[in-house]
Hints:
Blueprint: H1 2-43, E1 47-52, E2 55-60, H2 61-87
Antiparallel strand pairs: 1-2
Amino acid sequence: MGAMRDDEVSQNAAAVHRRDAAGIVRLVVVGAVVLALILVGFDNRDDVRIGYVIGDAHAAVWIVVVGAAVGGFIVGGLLTHIRMRRRS
């Protein structure tokens, strides 16, 4: 009985370590993306014209890039959420 319990504990411990490693990898990737956005922002401080259907505006390139990245993260998160809900 004790040997079977030890096997269960070691299997669960391996699952916890994999989950922790996945969380660390995810954190590193998100940090790298944020760092890349910051570096792009520092390199692109010029103003650009943004055209809308009813007019236009001027903004710094880094604002446009960060806005596009945030929009992409939001759309990606929503798509992931929708896929996960359909599987359930």
